[in-house]
Inverse folding.
């Protein structure tokens, strides 16, 4: 197969979710609505937390950062898809594609670590309530955010630099609505064994360690709640982490769904739809989960309105 050097590649083609012309207006309206709900919902969460002094706690500090990351995550993929649908174009520049790969990895990694930090916060609040203010101080919260940013940035840059070393074939069609790392690597004509090993290794470490931390935290939380004598105390304790548990289930459930579908499904369209479930849907639903299931957030929203 004829190959091109990576310096000669000027653009890739994003095939999107469907090539049916009749579906394009519907897809445009659907994803524009989803994007607006995502941005407005998460910005409302940030505004509510910043305007209410009662919410200036570690839990809501992490939540405001999660909302900001969700806005950035959705902005990385959806606007380009909307522009392509509107212009009836499939192209994305080589630089734009690699930039998209980098930022998708960055914000996915940040969300992963932030969910683990929020789980640790709930663990300390329920299992060690008397030491909560000492342990979860502003210095530790800021350090956790900074550490998450450094690790996620290093991971995103590492994978992006590895892709820069690849040469690509003449077929540059990506059966997706954004430049996903795995799909871009599949188009390469050069040896990608190192890239694939790196993906599996880094994903196992950076995905597995936070997930183990979340699992450990909730194991301890459940054990502590079960030892509480009153039913009211159990309900109150569980209600403080119910929203976070829902977000964790949504994020990891959809992410695992993507990997399972990519391994099982032979249809690239099914894989694209599965990827949609973890890049677009969770950022849209997170504000609803936290505002509808959280009494403090509902009270603060009423004050803001």
């Amino acid at each position: 197969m004829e190959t091109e050097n990576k310096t000669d590649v000027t653009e890739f083609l994003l095939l999107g979710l469907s090539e049916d012309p009749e579906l394009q207006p519907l897809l445009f309206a659907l994803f524009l609505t989803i994007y607006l709900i995502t941005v407005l919902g998460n910005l409302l969460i940030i505004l509510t937390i910043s305007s209410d002094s009662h919410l200036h706690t570690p839990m809501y500090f992490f939540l405001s950062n999660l909302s900001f990351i969700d806005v950035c995550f959705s902005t990385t993929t959806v606007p380009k898809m909307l522009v392509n649908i509107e212009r009836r174009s499939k192209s994305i520049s080589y630089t734009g594609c690699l930039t998209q790969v980098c930022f998708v990895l960055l914000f996915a990694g940040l969300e992963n670590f932030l969910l683990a930090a929020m789980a640790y916060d709930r663990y300390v609040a329920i299992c060690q309530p008397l030491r909560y203010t000492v342990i979860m101080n502003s210095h530790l919260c800021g350090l956790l955010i900074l550490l998450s940013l450094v690790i996620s940035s290093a991971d995103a840059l590492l994978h992006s630099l590895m892709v820069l070393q690849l040469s690509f074939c003449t077929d540059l069609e990506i059966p997706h609505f954004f430049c996903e790392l795995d799909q871009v690597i599949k188009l390469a004509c050069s040896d990608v064994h190192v890239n694939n090993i790196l993906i599996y290794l880094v994903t196992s470490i950076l995905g597995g360690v936070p997930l183990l931390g979340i699992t450990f935290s909730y194991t301890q939380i459940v054990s502590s709640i079960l030892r509480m004598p009153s039913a009211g105390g159990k309900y109150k304790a569980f209600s403080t982490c119910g929203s976070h548990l829902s977000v964790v289930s949504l994020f990891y459930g959809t992410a695992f769904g993507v990997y399972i579908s990519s391994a099982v499904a032979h249809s690239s369209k099914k894989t694209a739809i599965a990827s949609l479930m973890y890049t677009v849907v969770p950022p849209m639903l997170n504000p609803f989960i936290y505002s509808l299931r959280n009494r403090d957030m509902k009270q603060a929203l009423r004050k803001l309105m």
User: Anything to note?
Assistant: The two ends are 61 Å apart (CA to CA). The chain has a mean pLDDT of 85. Residues 3-304 form a domain with the Rhopdopsin 7-helix transmembrane proteins fold (CATH 1.20.1070.10).
